[in-house]
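Hi L.,

You mentioned the student needs an example of a multi-chain input paired with its predicted structure. This one should do, with 563 residues in total across all chains.
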Amino acid sequence: MSTFAELLLNGISLGSVYALIALGFVVIFRATEVVNFAHASLLLAGGYVTATLHDDIGFWPALLVGIAGAAAVGAAVEFLVMRRYRGSDHSVLAIVTIGVDILLTTELTRRIGTDVLALGDPWGDAVLTVGPVSLAHTRIAAFVAAALLITAFLLVFRYTSWGVAMRAAAESPETAALMGVRLGRVSLGAWAVAGGLAAVAALFLTVFPTPGLERATSLAALKAFPAAILGGLDSTTGALVGGLLVGITESLATGYQSDLTFLGRGLGDLAPYLVMVAILLIRPAGLFGTKELARV
Amino acid sequence: MGGSALLVRDLSVGYGPVRALRQVSLEVPEGAVVAVLGSNGAGKSTLLRAVCRTLSFHGGAVTGGTVSLGGRPLDRLPPERVVAAGVSQVPEGRRVFARMTVADNLRAGALGGSGGRAERARALRRVHDLFPVLADRAQQRAGLLSGGEQQMLAVGRALMGSPKVLLLDEPSLGLAPLMAARIADTVREINEQGTSVLLVEQNAALALRLASRAYVLEVGEVTLSGPADTLAASDEVRRRYLGVTDEDAAADVSRAGGLPALSRWKG
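Structure written out for the whole complex:
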């Protein structure tokens, strides 16, 4: 039972990090209807900046610069690339983001090389033990940080003018333009916010028990993709639930791996996708997604 | 009073190779209600899109002519600058943000206005005075409102930017006659409060009752224009837009004691 509790808590913590990444997907999708395949490279960029700076300026300043840096990279991608294609078909834009992802990831993996970079986080490998359950400090920090950020984001989304503009633009860009919403600014803001969230996620994807930031970190980031899709790409609630679901599934499948050897190894990596496919079979728009309606 | 609020000169618009408007000129004098009549596809909505600079959403572009507001050219401005200059549109089919609450829809309407917090509060009071139902349903999702209430919300949302000129695209479309009359009364009230109105309508009877001046748009060109009452009395407008048949017209003439009425030939 204590194993189960541990796995569940770890899963929730991991899931909240996935939720942060998935939220980034959702923000961009809602503001621009573009599926952003370059998200993993934004995450890698944020993590890389933090990793290179923490020795010189300390962890917290480095994290802030990392967040700002990833936000700036996101905004730059929007401004320099996506803006040129505005009005194109959304699938064309999605493919453009794949190109951007390849460029950014190639450059970052060239810089990272075969190194495993530490981000210099203050939690180290400390473990909190309550009765039979032990949990790494990093996992607790991940959950708390993600919960705070997500709450802050949802409040901003609901109550500020920026949030109103964003939701209006998501529902109908043309009508939003008639209300005086600056679509370019909304889309720029969405990319920046997604970048910032990704940088925070990068931190928690690379801390203990993971060895550190490496080339493969961007692959871990891709697990947030099934989270966003199974939640429904246009739903913030969906991103949260999807993230948690993927995190818990992965944690349990990895934890009970030894009981499931008849299925072969590496089930933990596969499980999120299995859950996604199962959910999409029943609800093609995702758990909380809006069904696409077209008037003929 | 006296000057022109919105002035359109020789405006031509194309969607790719398709010419949608040809040298359309019209004027909305300050404080007036002006109607544009025309059937489906005459270019009415295109005209409003050209004024609000949203043609690019439909693959269209202005190919000639100018639009100005109080002497200030609006050409080449992005849509948000047109809104800030004082032009708000109530788009065809209402287009309320269905997933947002009524209150948030009204907030969205104020995003482009140039006024501060006090001005937004004043605009909101005005909208709630005009449409008390919007205050009652503030927290309801806009998609759950009835068609008439959605139209009220769309008008209210456009008023939140405190526009100088309000553009209305088919406000009576799909509404019960009673509700259409209600909207018409409100448009009159909005106009009396000092907002100039450009009303695009298929329902010519309603439009001509509201407007002081009207234009008839056919296949992208202005074919008739003049004071609304003159147009309402013209045979062509009556026949084509007011649903008055030739027989009715003939009956009118005979009642007026003019030409002898021709009875139907009974063979």
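You could point out the following to them. Chain B touches chain A at residues 52, 54, 56-57, 78-80, 83-84, 88-89, 91, 95, 97-100, 104, 107-109, 111-113, 157, 161 (CB under 8 Å). Chain B has two domains: 1-86+165-175+192-258, 96-162.

Best wishes,
N.
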